[in-house]
């Protein structure tokens, strides 16, 4: 009787214990539909033995775990099965020589998955030149089953187009995350290296499933402490954990470290003692972390120290560090996100002005890491003019996955279309088709050291990214880093199927909701090319009235330039002439009102309130309508999601519902506060049918958020 009560008790508890909370990300491996299970199980009845290298061991374990979950039986249990063998093979293994597999085309990290017959048995070969390719292939194979595709006749070859596929964590050593909206840092520096949280393995699995192969562990606003022996030991413990998953660790390097931890009086990059400090530091790190990736540096930007403090250049600084890590195979990522304290120049022009003249002068192991746009991860920015302008330099992309300017973690904004918009932009540097994607994958200028970095949105929250849907932004970033030309709608479909399930009644509306979500955020925050209109410091909510302070280019009024006569930043020849930084055809189009896309209108032009938009609306009316359109879209997402309750587990459904309500209220707040502010200049009524703001302008201006996260 007591036993029965216990079993019943456990059964009652079980659903709660199993409730999904998002921890499993897109690697949930929930059972596929009964009808499909038999076919999949037949294809995956046994895994042939594999060499026990660290990476092949985790590859095999992942395959077993995935198949067990998806197909419902341990694949190994049926070893010896006549058919349905899966063969994992790396390099010239006897098991696969003679199969005529095109291994040569796979490079160091690519893989192939092919259905063949080996020894009379129907076999799925997952092969690569190196073990890591096999692990990537295993994740791909599992994703085929997760997304409901056939695995009967496979002939897949996949090779990453970008060499360094990186996450950048803006994580401080005290676990506070700059611009982090998902809890604390996942890197528990205090307990490392003695204790490595098992979560680190799941972090590595998730990244490897996307092909991410590098992670910068600490903030670009760096502390020299991260380069001291105790912290190197901590980083080494993480590196050991990540290594089987093909992930290298990198650290940020504070440029003044020679003074702060090296006892020197200068950090001048041409000073022999400084150069010796960095060389010795690199040697010390590589002794502990033999495959250390290298350094990421923010120099002479927003108060960070750098070579210009000594009258030296970015080239002097970057090359000095490159010489230190170069002999070990390390790389230096040097950020182009710079704007000077003294410069009255349009901030959008400064990165280009500083870096373009140095084209061809950086060492081969330096990557200049360029943000997608010239200001700062705004909801919409035209592509950065440096793309296409430095053909003799390794240029890497920096995207922001964490949503500093896009509603933190409570707004559902799928960033895929935003990333895709930048990557598909045509720089025209070498004629039509010179897309940013082709700069990034190196094909435009024949560059080998290619890179894409994403500022991570990962934290200690149980769901990793602060919300269920923000996981999609980590996911799409990884997929685009592998292939910058991949379509983000298809990626959203994969993510939805793997994260919530393959039922089309769920997938179709969710994907459609995701695909329009970024445009909606642009509408309710900064329509028609407006930018940098958020609250001061924390960047939460609207703050179009922000003015004063230490520098004009940290204010909203500097960017909107609203007055009674009009609104917008003139970046044509009559203004800052930033359009001249683009290839002539691109710049001419941006500068021409007949050519520029209205989505970028006020980024490049200052226009009267009565300027006629293509719709026939005046600029003022069109702006107001767009704010409202954004709010309506969020209404639509709320409705759609409410109707999806039957297809989503209760806990995740509830969390998303709550956040969508927050987003709805905040979208309204953005609309109302922005309209209230700009109407003081436009002095025009709202178009018919557009309701007045809910509160007075004074009300919105008085709101304060001293405890907003991520500052
Ligand atoms: C890490 C913006 C952010 C800062 C960030 C900076 C950068 O200015 O607000 O928090 O600092 O970009 O990218 O370096």
Textual characterization of the structure:
The chain is globular, with a radius of gyration of 26 Å. It has 21 helices and 13 strands. Strands 6-7-8-9-10-11-12-13 form an 8-stranded parallel β-barrel. It folds into 3 domains: 2-158, Chitobiase, domain 2 (2-Layer Sandwich), CATH 3.30.379.10; 164-499, Alpha-Beta Barrel (TIM Barrel), CATH 3.20.20.80; 500-545 and 609-711, Alpha-glucuronidase, C-terminal domain (Alpha-d-glucuronidase, C-terminal Domain, Alpha-Beta Complex), CATH 3.90.1330.10. The protein has helices spanning 2-18, 34-43, 54-71, 131-146, 199-210, 229-242, 257-260, 272-288, 314-325, 347-355, 416-424, 436-440, 471-482, 488-500, 504-525, 556-560, 584-591, 601-604, 619-642, 650-682, 697-702, and strands spanning 46-47, 85-90, 111-118, 121-128, 155-158, 164-168, 214-216, 248-252, 294-297, 331-335, 366-371, 395-400, 451-455. Strand 1, helix 3 (54-71) and strand 2 form a beta-alpha-beta unit. With 711 residues, it is an alpha/beta fold. It binds 4-O-methyl-alpha-D-glucopyranuronic acid (GCV). 4-O-methyl-alpha-D-glucopyranuronic acid (GCV) binds at residues 170, 178-179, 220-221, 298, 302, 337, 376, 404. GO terms for molecular function: alpha-glucuronidase activity; xylan alpha-1,2-glucuronosidase activity. This is Xylan alpha-1,2-glucuronidase. InterPro entries: A-glucoronidase_C_sf, GH, Glyco_hydro_67_aGlcAse, Glyco_hydro_67_aGlcAse_N, Glyco_hydro_67_C, Glyco_hydro_67_cat, Hex-like_dom2. Belongs to the glycosyl hydrolase 67 family. Keywords: Carbohydrate metabolism, Glycosidase, Hydrolase, Polysaccharide degradation, Signal, Xylan degradation.
